[in-house]
Amino acid sequence: MIREIKAKSLLRKHKKIDSWFVARYGMNLYRGCLHNCAYCDGRAEGYYVEGEFGKDIDVKINAPELLQKELDPKRKRIPFKKGFIMIGGGVGDSYNVLDKKYELSRKILNIVSDYDFPVHVLTKSTLVKRDIDILHAINQKSKAIISFSFSGVDDNICKIFEPGVPPATERLETISFFKKEGFPVGVFMMPVIPFITDLPDQMENSIRKFKEAGVDFIIFGGMTLKEGRQQDYFYKVLKENYPDLLHQYEMIYKGDKWGGASHQYYESINKLFLELACKYQISKRIPAKLYNQVIDQNDVVAVILDQMDYILKQKGQKSPYGYAAYSVSQLKEPITEHLNKLQNLSGVGPVTEKIILEILETGTSGCYEKLLIT
Ligand code: SF4
């Protein structure tokens, strides 16, 4: 059932910049998703998506008016800080098939363009090509990053687990198209499907194809499977298509509250991903050159430190950078006001201080750039 609703508000403002998407703001134009991916955590009870997931969807028909009001600086005592607005992610895809009719994404992009905000679009749909004219305008004025999510690149497997999504080969072609048009493009390779798309030959094939398509980064993640609706539905699809794998799933998904798989499982797929990303020299996070001219210096420093923290932990190493990233993200004043006393900030020691100074001078850090591809 399609329900047209009037939402009360639209933009979600993050407490600190989100270093996965380099976004300060997010939004969902639809509640629910007709793409109906078998692994979608939107099906989990915690997300309160009403009705039958994959079939019932709310359309926020007043989204453009809300955004117009929310971004208008004249209506604000303190205007919104400039930062990437994320369109997509969460438990919906703004370019689901209904957007052909409602064109909410297009209307939203027009407003984002009017107010000169940078945008990061994440989708599984090739419909995003429809809005290339506005995306070009945004990319020239500020920046438009176009990302696609994949669980793998085998069309037959995608048909089973992502029945409402264009085939992976079409998504790959769309990435190449945007790259040739001059956009920064990326892949969210998540979730990989255990024992199916996370196998070494599948992973290597995916990463080789992403590289050939010209991606600027690949962000990787494993699958969560919360007990209840999400797990029940996924296991139903699994039993219909890969019944022999059920036992292996039960060995790694053992009732974690958040639906996480075992530590050993995540460690093994992360290791494989890190080796392949290094082999194909692909950045494992959104690289600084895509955002360091667009967002303010505090956010650049916070994102770089946070990304360094993530990569080191992904490699199983300790990191001193996460706490420092948080401290910087909470500063109200420009970090340059702390130049001679950076070590007074919580979590900032002599090594982190040196990295921060390098970022302020060059927009990036040698140590960070190395971590991104090794
Ligand atoms: S496209 Fe994303 S939000 Fe939609 S069903 Fe698939 S995983 Fe869920």
3D structure, described in words:
This protein has helices spanning 63-71, 99-102, 104-114, 132-141, 155-161, 168-180, 200-213, 229-241, 246-252, 263-279, 297-314, 321-329, 350-362, 366-373, and strands spanning 2-5, 12-18, 23-27, 30-31, 57-60, 84-87, 119-123, 144-150, 185-189, 217-220. Helices cover 41% and strands 13% of the residues. The termini are far apart. With 374 residues, the protein is of the alpha/beta class. The model has no long low-confidence stretch (mean pLDDT 95). The chain folds into 2 domains: 2-290, pyruvate-formate lyase- activating enzyme (Alpha-Beta Horseshoe), CATH 3.80.30; 297-373, DNA polymerase, domain 1 (Orthogonal Bundle). The chain has a 7-stranded mixed beta sheet. The longest helix has 18 residues, at 297-314. It binds iron/sulfur cluster.
